[in-house]
Amino acid sequence: MHIICDQKKLLKSITTVLKGISSKSTMPVLEGIYMEAKDNHVKFIATDLELGIETTIETQVIEEGVMVLNARLLNEITRKLPGSQVEMRIKEDGKVFIKCEQSEFDLVSYETEEYPELPQVEKDQIAKIPRGLLKNMIEQTTFAVSQDESRLILTGGLLEIEDTTLSMVALDGYRLALRKGEIKGSQDHKVVIPGKTLNEVGRIIDEDLETELQILFTDSHILFDLGNTKVISRLLEGQFIDYKQILPDEHRVAVEVSRQSLLHSIERASLLAKEGNNRLVKFKIEDHQLHISSNSEHGQVHEQIGIDQQGDDLEIAFNAKYLIDALKVIEEDEVKFLFTSNVSPGIITSTDNNHYTYLVLPVRLSNN
Asked: Where in the numbering of this chain does the DNA polymerase III beta sliding clamp N-terminal domain appear (predicted)?
């Protein structure tokens, strides 16, 4: 194998697939990036056997072939090289020679025969989704996936297609994030995708947001086809929680408020919230005012925001982080809070549309 490639192009390809590398693999070859040069294109692959990322670039191929190089080392070397042309070739002794201007490296290659092939996903079950919509859905939900691997199914996000409605759901037992969108007609599907996979797909989608990408399904795998880049992942097995049964269908108090004002007030109030006290912030809703307070051994804080209030007065408390996470990803200027009681979940939605719903459990106060 012998190629010549622009340093920036090479680095982007390496960083794209890098997150497919596992830091805990028992197979040394999986610490490497597989590179295949053919027909003036180079394909880069990284996998941990659960998640695989593949990207292809067009470049000068002098001699076709394959090599597997240590991903961490290749990334660090390429990042430090001058922004010029990089030559890579396999020498007679099997080592890989890398040259860029006056810099030269000889690297040991892994045995390419040991590198596993990525699973094949047939194109018989396909959904087409605008890239920007999928990226937005990922950003607005995956922060709520569970980190508790004892409930493995909740470490992923539910992707559900019903007629023309696409839904993505994540929940961890304390909050639930639901984002809906409209797509062209597709077969109905319901799969649970690991949170890591969704985050990587969201990271890779950084351009052509108006164009569509394809999602291909099997019973055990999902493939995100972004053209030159593909992400393939195992699906999580098991039954996802029936989230529709969790969402309340009525409320007693409704509050409309500026998203930015609320976010900044909660961020300031949380500065004094104890970590051991669930970063507790208290809400007091009365007379079209929202009072936000928190206290610790270091002092107290009080914030007050004008609101549009419908319904009764209410006192309720929340983990500040759970509120901040949602308010940061909502794009609209105004949000609506819906409450039933001070021990029932609160609902946050945008006032402009019904595409986003966020449910969060309150913290029970001692006098409740």
From this structure: 1-119
Residues in the chain: 368
What's the DSSP call for residue 352?
Answer: S
Q: Record the tokens describing residue 337, joined without a space.
A: 């809070």
Distance CA 293, CA 141 (A): 27
Confirm if 327 and 337 have CB atoms less than 8 A apart: no
Contact call for residues 328 and 270 (beta carbons, < 8 A): no
Q: Which residue has the higher pLDDT, 344 or 184?
A: 344
Burial 314-323 (b: 16+ CB within 10 A, else e): bebbbbbbbb
Q: Which two tokens stand for residue 182?
A: 């409209």
**257 - beta bridge partners?**
335
Q: Is the pTM of this model over 0.70?
A: yes
Q: How confident is the model at residue 208 (pLDDT cuts 50, 70, 90)?
A: confident
Q: Which residue has the tokens 């569970």?
A: 146
Average pLDDT, integer, range 334-351: 95
User: Which residue from 258, 332, 331, 320 is spatially nearest to 294, judged by alpha carbons?
Assistant: 320
